[in-house]
Amino acid sequence: MAEDLEEDFEEGEGSEEVSEGPSRKLPIKKILIIVLPILLLIGAGAGLYFSGVLGGLLGGKDEPPKEAAAAPAKVVQAAVFMDLPEMLVNLQSSGRKQAFLKIRVALELEAVTDQPRVEQVMPRIVDNFQVYLRELRMEDLQGAAGMHLLREELLARVNAAVKPVKVNDVLFKEMLVQ
User: Fold this and answer.
1) Is the predicted pLDDT of residue 3 greater than 80, yes or no?
2) How many whole angstroms from its chain centre is CA 69?
3) Which candidate among 19, 115, 139, 149 keeps its CA 20 to 30 Å from the CA of 3?
4) Phi, psi at residue 119, to the nearest 5°?
5) Is residue 46 very low, low, confident or very high in pLDDT (cuts 50, 70, 90)?
6) pLDDT band at 63 (very low <50, low <70, confident <90, very high)
7) Per-residue 3-state assignment (H helix, E strand, C coil) for 57-126
8) Other CB atoms closer than 10 Å to residue 20's CB: what's the count?
9) Rounded CA gap, 85 and 23, in Å?
């Protein structure tokens, strides 16, 4: 039986099977070599298109929605600022040493017509600020994150106090921590 296999191999019957192995892998390699770069190019093109880079390069124009074009343009009003009285509060401290915060802020209102309403509820605004500020610790006011958090909290409290009126921002004029 081993002799028959040797004869078949010498005649070339076995060599056909050996040569078929690599020929099967060759089309798969060709397909990968051709298809993979095409898929990568399509993916890169789609990414550029959806990110807006490709539209700018091709000269695509961004047209405003029809709803925006039909709506009348808002008249831009000058910002209205209203100063609050200076506040001096003692901060929470764990030791015997007292820490104080002296702060002056201004409110940015949407319109001049909102100023009488804000003046009407000024005691409530000052009270809300005082209660919040007295609960702060020195660590709460450190760094830009502390300042940002303080601004957001004061803005939320003032908007709650002057409910129908909208205050756009709380601006720090002076802030001293001692």
Assistant:
1) no
2) 28
3) 19
4) -65, -35
5) confident
6) low
7) HCCCCCCCCHHHHHCCCCCCCCCEEEECCCEEEEEECCCCCCEEEEEEEEEEECCHHHHHHHHHCHHHHH
8) 9
9) 88
